[in-house]
Amino acid sequence: MATLRKKTKIVLTGAPSSGKSTTLQALQKHFGDKVVLVPESAVVLLSGGFPAPSHTDNEQIRAFQKAILSVQENLEDIFSRKSSAPTMILDRAKLDGAGFWPPGPEDYFKNFGVDYQHELNSYDHVLFMELPKPEHFGGLAQTRFHNYEQSLQSEKALEQVWGKHKSFTKIQAEADLNKKIDHVIHVIENLIK
User: Fold this and answer.
1) Would you say 143 and 156 are in contact if contact means Cβ atoms under 8 Å apart?
2) What one-character DSSP code corresponds to residue 54?
3) What angle do CA 185, 5, 72 make, to 5 degrees?
4) DSSP 80-141
5) pLDDT tens digits, residue range 114-172?
6) Which neighbouring-strand residues pair with 38?
7) CA 73 to CA 172: how far, in whole Å?
8) Is residue 42 exposed (0-12), middle (13-18) or buried (19+ Cβ within 10 Å)?
9) Gap between the Cα atoms of 163 and 31, Å rounded
10) C-alpha count within 13 angstroms, C-beta hemisphere, residue 18
C-alpha cells in the first residue's frame, strides 16, 4: 500500500467539451507513473449507468450532484492511497459542481455543505481549459448532455469559482486541440519541476 505523503494536486477544469478528457489521456502518455490521474466523477457515474439529469429538474440535478460529491471525495482518497506518484491531476473537483447548479455557486455551497475556501485551498494549482469557439465545439459526446450554450454558462460559473485560486492558469482555446494539450503539458512540467 502506498504511503500517504502529501501530493501536489492539480485540478484540470473547464466547461464540457473543453478538451479535458483528451488532455488527460495525453498527460498519462507524457508523464506516465510520475502522476496519478483522477477521472471525472460525473463520467464515472454516467458511464456506469447513472442517468443523466434533466436540465429542467433541479431535484434530478440535486441527486446527481450529491452522487458526484460522494464519488469525488472517495476517488481522491483511493487514488491518494493507491499511488506513490508525487503529483495528482484531477479531472474536476468538488467546486466544479457550482458550475452546473442552476441556482448558482452560492446556493450550491449552501445546499451541498461545500466549504468554498477549504476546497479552494485543498489544491495546489488549477488549470482552466477555455471552451472552444462554436465552430470547433465537439458537440454532445456519449456521456455528455450539454449543448454549446449550456457549456458556455457552465464555463462562466466555473471561471468565477476557480478564478480566485492562488495558482489559477487559464488555457486559451485553440482551433487545434493538440496545441492546447501541448500548452497544458508545458504548464504542468513547470509546476512539478
Assistant:
1) no
2) P
3) 65
4) HHH---SEEEEE--GGGGGGT-TT-HHHHHHHHT--HHHHHHT-SEEEEEPPPPGGG-----
5) 999 999 999 999 999 999 887 767 644 444 566 878 889 999 999 999 999 999 999 99
6) 90
7) 29
8) buried
9) 26
10) 27
